[in-house]
Amino acid sequence: MAFEYILSTTFYGSFVTLLAFGVINFFSYSIHYLSNISKQMIFREDGYLFAWLASLWVGGVPLLCYSIFIYMAVYLWTRRKKGMPVYPKNFVLFGFQATIMVILFYTTKDFILFSLFTGLFLSIMLSLFFAQVITIISLHFLFDVPWEEEGWREKIIELVWIDAFSLFLFLLMNQFLPTIESHVNMQLVSQTCLMIFVIFRYASRMNSISQKQQMVETMKELQDLNNKLSMANNHVLTAFAASLEKRDSYTAGHSERVAKYAAQIALGLGMAPKQQRLIHLGGLLHDIGKIGIPDNVLNKQGPLTEEEYSVMKQHPLIGEELIKGVYQNYPLLNEDEKATIIDIILYHHERPDGKGYPKGLSEEQIPIWSKIMAVADSFDAMTSTRSYRKAMTNEQAINVLIQGSGTQFWKPAVDAFINIKAGG
Ligand SMILES: [Fe+2]
């Protein structure tokens, strides 16, 4: 067999073999490491399986041990250098993989002697296939990787085929070495060719991984772009809300002030800064549904008739509909945050006594941020001049809040707001 031949041959042949497998295993680890970066953790490009099987065939168990030694040395050195943890479980995995290879190598050896081409190929396929199966089983039990990962069967078949075919060519070349036994130089050239072949094979795999990384980067860029678009979307929405106010000059700046008051109440109630910012955004958007209210109702000089009022009462529902559409693909807010904004838009006219609209919810049913918004909204409405009435003073408006505290307005929000106004 070729491997017996190579081990017993000249120093040059052995030296080049050792050098070749040293380099191959070194690259195997770099590839493995790159794969981790690109989050292909489940199917790490197990380049070392190829390198180990090749060394088993070329130099038997001693060369396999040498390959494993080099691979682990690079693994430990790189991990330590980068300050990354070393997982002892990985060594258990390596042990399983090497064992299955040795078992399959020795059980299929006789068959290969019987039929070189098919036997060799079958042996390689079996070894790589079972090494991959062992990898999956070990990943599940050692690293808690779930069984059902999308496309894993296809991935195994792809890996096994590519590796098996490369290895087959490699070993077939090696099989012919004994025929050129007398030519030491030829042997040296042949070993060098093999090394170049294997390095070339790894270079192509590196290339495929760098393509994958590029894909990951492109995805990231797309995500960034999507975020920017959403941000623009957000600006368009708040601009919409502001333009609404231009339809009625009396309500100019209303949303900004309501947003500011609501965020202050949230602060007064001890809510987190993130919640305060969210409530501020909700304040800017709370009346967005007025886009759908006709001008003759929205801008009517004087009090609304019952019919007009019922049209006006639709604005929380219109706003909810509108914002739900915008939020369908909106990565800047998570689902909870989106729900908060929707709550604010939909329920900012609800009252603790159940007499609000559009749903007539009870105090417990109305979300806190909606109850905060109602106080902020009412205060600003009372202290702004309207076409049909003059603005109240701050004191008058606060008196109305106090009178309605617990019925029209949520008491904790009124108390917090009075504290803020008292503090200046
Ligand atoms: Fe409103």
Structural overview:
The longest helix is centred in the middle third of the chain and has 63 residues, at 184-246. The model is unreliable at 1-12 and 33-45 (pLDDT under 50). Helix content is 74%, strand content 0%. The radius of gyration is 36 Å and the shape is rod-shaped. It has 424 residues and is mostly helical. It has 16 helices and no strands. The protein folds into two domains: 2-222, no CATH class; 247-422, Orthogonal Bundle (Hypothetical protein af1432). The protein starts with a helix and ends with a helix. It binds fe (ii) ion. Fe (ii) ion (FE2) binds at residues 286-287, 315, 348-349.
- Count of β-strands: 0
Please identify the structural class as seen in this structure. mainly alpha
Instruction: Output the radius of gyration.
Output: 36 Å
Helix content: over 70%
Question: What is the approximate shape?
Answer: rod-shaped
Give a short account of the largest sheet. none
Strand content: under 5%
Overall tally of domains: 2
In angstroms, what separates the terminal alpha carbons?
Answer: 93 Å
Q: Which runs of at least 5 residues are low in confidence (pLDDT < 50)?
A: 1-12, 33-45
Number of helices: 16
Bound molecules: fe (ii) ion
The average pLDDT score comes to 77
The succession of helices and strands, N to C, reads HHHHHHHHHHHHHHHH
